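@channel sequence for tomorrow's demo:
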Amino acid sequence: MNEGTETQQQNIAPLTMGQYRALLGKYLKPQWRKALVMAGLLLTSIGLQLLEPQILRFFIDTAMAQGALQLLMNAAVVYLLAAVGIQILGAFANYLGADVGWTSTNLVRQDLAKHTMQLDMKFHNSRTAGEMIERIDGDVTALSDFFSQFSVRVFGGLLLLAGILVVLWLENVWVGLALTIFVILEFSVLYYTRHRAVPATRLEREANAKIFGFIEERLAGLEDIRANGGGAHAMYRFNYTMRDFYTTSRKAWMLRNTIWMTSYGMFVLGMTVTIAAAIFLVTRGSITVGTGYLVLQYMFMLQGPIEQITQQMQTLQKVTASIGRINELFAMKSDLPEGKNLALPTGAIAINFDHVNFSYDDKPTLKDVSFTLKPGTVLGLLGRTGSGKTTLTRLLFRFYDVTSGSVRLNGVDVREAALKDLHSRVGMVTQEVQLFQASVRDNLTFFDSSIPDERIQNVLTELGLAEWLESLPEHLDTKISAAGGNLSAGEAQLLAFARVFLKDPGLIILDEPSSRLDPATEKRLELALNKLLKGRTAIIIAHRLDTVQRADEIMILDNGSILEHDRREKLASNPRSRFYQLLQAGHSLDEELEELA
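structure tokens (generated this afternoon):
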């Protein structure tokens, strides 16, 4: 491991007990009823486990004294019943523990996902989807295993341990004292090594997240990798990432297992001393053979809870790393400060950019952009790739804050508007439609159950999708694949339009929505567009000139600045305008293509 990694490990501070209590208390407290039932099962099971050696002692001493056969039979039956009862009670306790663990951690996942969804785009742009899946699901799954087992194994193990020591003290003070000292030494070792593997385990989790992110990115770009012969390079990078994961995982595993090896070595030593002492006391006649066996049995029983607690201490080191990463994610705040939560009025929205400057990581993207759109205006936004078109529209959603200047919608600065209200009043249709592995209904409503089916059906009818909906086997309940495999590109694009119809915003942003459609579907989309734009303000990001023929105004961006902005008819009739030149170049190109055809 390199020096930088070692330094990173040293900078990772162990969690405080307060952080443990805050997280565990918040998500385990609602499960207190199940916890009480589980505690009752554990106590009963522990009582039966403590009873078993007593039954065996009675059986051995009675047999050696040639006692009545009926007494031996009764003892055997009671022992078998106790053994079966222990297994049944243990199974129910484990079931409840798993139920408590998964219920609690599902709430953690829910809160974590909700929190990250509220963070700004700078946060999401700096992390891959695979990394976020690992942090929200992978880290929390490790926590789930801890929640489901810790209460049963550690709490139950400590109770059994205490019960064994009490019984041994009652049987023989010296035996009780010796084994109490042994247990204290065991737990001292566990206490001083409990955080030994936490830094390495945290690096292991981070390396695991990088693997998820790497795989997700390469699978998403699989066609490009194959088409450009990048398979060998992708495998080289994959091997490099796996090697880093192997190195960190091996070190974390070795550090976690030092606890087990130390504990097991001490237990072997304690068992040797106990066997020698029991043989010595039996040969001297200080205790009976049955009592000697009882002491050995209790010593063997000590191994169970100690091993369980040792295993949980190893798990605790994994979980501590996960809890640290979970708390770190919860502690992250959006760089976009909350404003005054001002409401935006209904109806078409007026837009005002006032000397707006914006930079990505100190790289200027928009430079002194100022313009005004009246309510109901349709703006055609043109410009080459990298000119700032997409950035300009993202500022309207307040995905980012301007570096300087202001963006106002109906006179309200977007920094002062309520984000929920802002996102409901501004709609967008892009070329790439995001679909979910869910029903048609959920894909249209974004899982909002408050939207009635009648309204959804009316919107689909208005878009000319009524026949398509009727052709589906389960209509609105028909499942759509996440990749949209059971939809054509046109159907997916029309569903995206239906989403905007259902949202009914006052401002619509269209990022060349018809670029991937066949002519027949494009005509249906044109009809839908006419209805969608009526009474609303719109910005159409255009890559084809015929897309902006319905625009009232044209704006051309170049290198982050406004090259020209005016009424479309005025620019189209002005030979000196850039838009006029683009139109002429477009017509000439169309004529050349017709001649070649």
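heads up for whoever presents: The first strand starts at residue 351 and ends at 360.
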